[in-house]
Write the structure tokens for this entry.
Amino acid sequence: MLHTAKVLFTIIGAAGLKSFKLNEVKRKQQYIEDFHERNRFTQLQPKLWARNILNTAGVKVKVHGDLPYYKEPVLYVANHEGNFDIPVLISTILQPFGFVSKQEVEKIPFLKDWMDLMHCIYIDRKDRRSGVKMLKSAIQNLNDGYSILIFPEGTRSKGEGIQEFKAGALKMAQKAKVNIVPVVIKGTSEIMEKNDHNMIKEGIVQIKMLEPIEPSIFKEQSLQDVTTMVEHKIKNEYEKL
């Protein structure tokens, strides 16, 4: 097993070492005219950072089925099992995306600038107004062509099964009229959360991307019904992995 301090050092250290590239990435962005190519270029460094974390921790990712690349913006909806979910998904999902993160992450050295570049969004769970602001930002990002990843459970399950999805979690997809892509992730809690004192243990994380759900579904079903349906789809596949 590895101590969490070593992985934490890798996370912050890697971000710090790559921080000098931030201005270079921003500068080069300006000369890439194609939106998709510019977006992909922006996330090259975060992908390298995520893969470095997984390699340090001895985490391997097993993908079930295909991982399509969507040129149009989508809302990725995943269950949230552990702290390793984000590096696993950044390293695995082909399409660049930002994600909704708790506000505390803004305080982590070096990470915020990169997360801003990826069009991540922050939310203060204790402040209702923050939720409204997050929703507006998410809709704007989707309308601007940037995909988003959200964890509708709101917090890590730590391997204790999938928790109920929050009501209205998919409202941004409804308002922005984008496809919902359910993503199943299993095994990250075995890497960290289930271990004594959160020690890091090598292991395999499994990923499966489900068929996209078109925004026209909101014409037939309520927001809550769609949220429940996506929750059940992810739960069913999670139990099969």
Observations:
- Strands lie at 59-64, 74-78, 97-102, 121-123, 147-150, 179-186, 203-209.
- Residues 93 and 198 are 26 Å apart (CA to CA).
- The first strand starts at residue 59 and ends at 64.
- The mean pLDDT is 86.
